[in-house]
Amino acid sequence: MEDRIQGLHHITAIAGDAQRNYDFYTKVLGLRLVKKTVNFDDPGTYHFYYGDEQGAPGTILTFFPWRNVRRGENGAGMATGIGYAIPAGSLGFWTKRFEEFNVSFGKPEKRFDEVLVNFTDPDGLQLQLIMPENPDRREGWKTADIPANAAIQGFHNVTLTVNNVKPTAAILTDIFGYRLTKQEGNIFRYVTDAVKEAAIVDIVETAEGKRGHVAGGTNHHVAFRVKDEAVLMQFRDKVVQKGYQITPKIDRNYFFSLYFREPGGVLFEIATDNPGFAIDEPLNELGQHLKLPGQYESQRMEIEQVLPALVQ
Ligand code: ZN
């Protein structure tokens, strides 16, 4: 079982203003900032990781906040929805909270017998709060305003939009071990039984749909989870055998990663559980310090001057 893809690891999106992003995710949604670091490919930009107490795989939403970034556009070839599980009975708490904080949100609706509410973050990123059919067992991060019986528990699903479901689905079923469980119109639900939570990928097929444009307020990539580097490299072989280009193993400090573009256009990553976010600061201080990878530590002063100030 452990050599399988274990659902979602993290999802990464692009934001505009760093402070606004921080305030929305930690204060309005009540997630924990588990790591404040920089984009390893562009150290003048933050990389924020939000999740549960530990930043457990399957709860981690990450952002590159680029000030003055232009707005992207959801469309085919990208992840177009991020679904968070919430406890049964907590939807009223959240819609009231969204009103209070002027969050743009829709009326409750149903997808595959699950009640969900669509909402957007300040950059226009599309998210959903979902009451799962089988209640989620994870404990969310609690804040002064958000009690345990309402706290967001982590990802329930991710939605991908593609022009043709088949090639993308083949990656999920033939390589990642997901299977098609439900279909409603042009929405296909793929689920892995390797894990109980963060186990769902929904694919929206839109044959004529315009391609999306990745920029502010859109998703950059979706990362799937494996136990360790040995399993990571097994999946690298499987992807190569199917004829796709994939990167070598990349050290992301908190996990090891591979990236490849699935045939529908979405950038996929496979990421390990090890070593996790407590590798460079204690659990009770996660997210409080600017953490830099070794190669940038000697430039800390310059980097701190370039990064926008963040009030936490
Ligand atoms: Zn990633």
Task: Please explain how this structure is put together.
- There is one protein chain.
- The chain is α+β, with helices and mostly antiparallel strands.
- It has a single domain, classed as 2,3-Dihydroxybiphenyl 1,2-Dioxygenase, domain 1.
- The chain contains 5 helices and 16 strands.
- It has helices at 18-28, 91-100, 165-175, 229-241, 300-306; strands at 8-15, 32-39, 42-51, 60-65, 78-85, 109-111, 114-120, 126-131, 154-162, 179-184, 187-191, 200-205, 219-226, 250-251, 255-261, 267-275.
- The strands form 2 sheets. Strands 2-3-4-1-13-16-15-14 form an 8-stranded mixed β-sheet. Strands 6-7-8-5-9-12-11-10 form an 8-stranded mixed β-sheet, with helices on one face.
- Strand 14 and strand 15 form a beta hairpin.
- The chain is globular and about 50 Å long.
- It starts with 7 loop residues before the first strand and ends in a 6-residue tail after the last helix.
- 43% of the residues are buried.
- The structure holds zinc ion (ZN).
- Residues 10, 12, 221, 223, 269 line the site of zinc ion (ZN).
